[in-house]
Amino acid sequence: MAEIKQLRDKQPDNEKITINLGFVDLGRIDLLVQEGFYSNRSDFIRTAIRKQLDTHGEAVDRSIERHTMELGLRDFGRAELEQLRAAGEILHIKVVGLARIGSDVTPDLAQATIGSITVLGSLQASADIKKALADRIL
């Protein structure tokens, strides 16, 4: 029994979105999948989105720099936030991608150290943390 590990704590590596497409566009995608150009509808849609993001890559980069945002995955844990609290500093989180506030962070610590959160992508944090910071999530 000592070697049993809970598997449900793993967070997804991506976020699911829903889009509406016309029947003709959907049929054209299905035709390309059927012909072997793509493995499935999701593969086609991901490829199309990446191509559009590449087309606008310079604009995205300039915007990230202008808004002083971090790109990618950013974890915020108890140790980092305790250092900020000890230094009397307030953190303003700005992330394009995924921001995660660790399960070791208490709502009180988060409130004492996080001044604002702007995430373009996804924020992963406990329900208690999100509730404690609700007025700071932009």
From TrEMBL:
SUPFAM superfamilies: Ribbon-helix-helix. One of its GO terms (biological process) is regulation of DNA-templated transcription. It holds the Pfam family RHH_8. Signal peptide: none annotated. It comes from the Bacteria. InterPro entries: Arc_rbn_hlx_hlx, RHH_8, Ribbon_hlx_hlx. This is Transcriptional reguator. It comes from Profundibacterium mesophilum KAUST100406-0324. The lineage of its organism: Bacteria, Pseudomonadati, Pseudomonadota, Alphaproteobacteria, Rhodobacterales.
